[in-house]
Amino acid sequence: MKQREGLISFWLHRVSGVAVMMFLIIHVGDTAFVMLGPAIYNRILDIYKSAWFQPLEVLLVAAVLFHALNGLKVIVLDFWDATILYQRQLTYAVAALCLAVMLPVTYIMLRPTFFGGA
Amino acid sequence: MARTARLTVRRSGPPRDQAFEVEVVPHMSVLDALFRIVEDQDGTLAFRYSCRAGMCGSCAMVINGREGLACRTSLAGAGRRISVRPLRNLPVVKDLLVDMAPFFEKYAQVVPYPVQRAAEPAVIPPALRQMIDRQLDCITCGACYSACPIVASDPDFLGPAALNRASCLVEDQRDVNRAERLAALVDKDGLWRCHTTFECAAVCPKNLVPTRGIRNLKREVLRRR
What we know:
The complex is a heterodimer of chains A (about 120) and B (about 220).
Chain A: H1 5-32, H2 38-49, H3 54-79, H4 87-114
Helix pairs in contact in A: 1-3, 3-4
Chain B: E1 4-11, E2 16-23, H1 30-41, E3 60-63, E4 66-69, E5 81-85, E6 92-94, E7 97-98, H2 101-109, H3 126-133, H4 143-147, H5 149-153, H6 160-170, H7 178-185, H8 199-203, H9 210-224
Parallel strand pairs in B: 1-5
Antiparallel strand pairs in B: 1-2, 3-4, 3-5, 6-7
Helix pairs in contact in B: 2-6, 6-7, 6-9
């Protein structure tokens, strides 16, 4: 696809934004269980610690990271004249930065559950 | 043996794709290929054209999934299998011919001409002229309007071409109603609906960046608050 970087980052921004928003709503919900006592709250928290939830947490970090960096990119485009002609390069820079951060973060987050480390 | 290209053209009525084989002649454009189809194969195929030189903007259509001017798109460069469809976000009249009325209604909404002061000649500082230099070449072909994902989701959004024109006029010192212009652009279907996807810039046959004009308008609105 030719020169679709702007559109792809727009959609990723939307999807990551909605995903983070949905997590926040769920998170407010699960925190509210604390009102029903520690036993129930701890059982809810166990869901977050379960193996199948770990990859979802990695996705959450990726969504927050991309949304934040892409948001900064849009601010740069809006307030720095010269950058408007380099939006594609900026999009690739955001993607590269996300990848550079997410590779070690993914390993660190999944190591206790999937790679047998502490 | 002469090389041929297969053009898959979206026809109207019940929407369907119809394939045509056209012999490729050096320097032939997609518009030339459409002429060959009309002359040799199917005289009922409808499309709009005028200058054949990339100046009038009449023959904008979606070629291989991307908006472009048929007269400026090389047939050989477009590959052996070429899909040709009408512009998006506009009602189809027949085949590749779309009704441009919604596009020009929005263009009219931004009052696309300067409302001048009485005092002439106006003195325009070179820096101001340079600001709009790269935004003046719009030929209102509608390619940006077709490519814009915001127009697709909000049919009332003014669209890149109208906003680009508005930005030229807001920068025009001769214009008397700059404040009113800006006020008219900030409603819910105005410039804040632009999400800087740069689809307009990616398809503009004149290599304009309407996003730049929209960005300038946003900044001007903020500056005046």
